[in-house]
Amino acid sequence: MHKKSVLVGLLLTLFVVVLAGCGQTATNKRSNKLQVVTTFYPIYEFTKAVAGSDADVTMLMPAGTEPHDYEPSAKDIGKISQANVFIYSSNNMETWVGSLKSSIDEGQTKILNASHSIKMIDENDELKSEEAELADKEETTSFESTDNYDPHIWLDPENAKEMVTNISKELIQQDPKHKQDYVKRTNAYLKKLTTLNTEYETTLKNAKNKTFVTQHAAFAYLAKQYGLTQVAIAGISSDGEPSPNRLAELQTYIKKYHVDTIFTEANDSSKIANMLARETNIKVKGLNPIEGLSKAQIEGGETYLSVMQDNLKSLKTVVK
Length: 320
Prior knowledge:
Elements: H1 2-29, E1 34-38, H2 41-51, E2 55-59, H3 74-82, E3 85-88, H4 97-101, E4 110-113, H5 123-134, H6 157-174, H7 179-204, E5 211-214, H8 220-225, E6 229-232, H9 244-256, E7 261-264, H10 271-280, E8 283-286, H11 295-299, H12 304-316
Parallel strand pairs: 1-2, 1-3, 3-4, 5-6, 5-7, 7-8
């Protein structure tokens, strides 16, 4: 995280030079609409759902980008500084935003943390929960403590509703003349999220098996909302690797409780999950954390809502 902050600082210095040469041109090209820059896909969709055609909404990270690894370029920083509103998910997901704030004129560019009102899950609490799930009464392997909070807030539809509401309030504040339209679109999208939440509740409430195994510990908010427990191979970061003891515990757990599926992610390295599946002779299925949709997915009409419904179908085959 320190290296990323240093890099962002260097880019900010470069950005000042770049902006001096081309900033006026960029300003002239802007339309009269509210200019909104969002970081990655869920935030983009939530914002676009509220904004409609009344604001120009762009996504900073290219389609298919891994948000955990993303670092803004000087060009990206320029885009943010030229916007009226910059919206990101959380300080725990976009860890580079803190270094950026000192260089942005918040009189021109309002910076919104879309999850500022949501209580985040401490990764240590999540690890303890998994530890209890995996542990044999006679032998327990401890996990390393972290100072991280789980950033995957949007995977709980109720959290998504709160993020959309926060985004809506900000757009209304910055562009009050379109308040009526923003409110109308916000209510329409919130209704869709309420329907999604009801589908999850109805499908999962009577499940006898409440546990699922996943490659990446991205689903704590979803699991908490619906009374489930995720058992993750790796931690919060998608590129984390489990210890030999962790893998041994997982193998024992899978065999003891007759787990028949490991969930992996389309945008994530699944070598370890595939190896574990081969060694325990179980299936591998997809479960999407919606950290970013590919260009093909976006062009094919997939959305946060449709992917969440696909995730529910996948969960239904395991949590039953």
